[in-house]
Specification:
six-stranded mixed sheet; 8 strands
């Protein structure tokens, strides 16, 4: 897969702008397209943001896989990585938490 960061800083509006208002990274390769939203807080709010996007149904119809990657620290200060995939069948599938070895 070849990733591309498609989020950018708009200095005039003083805010970050995502692809289609909800995607930070687009990955292509192996006959697939993945759209990824990343966050250090609020995985649930990012999932909701994508689900409410007018572009989300088009992403799924186009065969894209849509993910939210979240990072947070547990009470021991260890980093936890949570991956959620949004699908047309169940709208979201929690892939799980990937332990404390996730990148900071």
């Amino acid at each position: 897969m070849k990733p591309w960061v498609c989020e950018y800083w708009n200095p005039f509006a003083r805010k970050r702008v995502d692809l289609y208002g909800c995607i930070d990274i687009l990955c292509i390769g192996n006959g697939e397209t993945w759209a990824v939203q990343t966050t250090s807080t609020g995985v649930a709010s990012r999932v909701k943001k994508i689900q409410e996007s007018e572009y989300f149904p088009l992403m799924l119809e186009s065969g894209w896989r849509v993910f939210v990657h979240g990072w947070s620290k547990n009470t021991k200060g260890e980093m936890k990585h949570r991956v959620v995939e949004l699908t047309s069948e169940n709208l979201l599938t929690s892939i799980g938490t990937v332990g404390s070895d996730a990148p900071a």
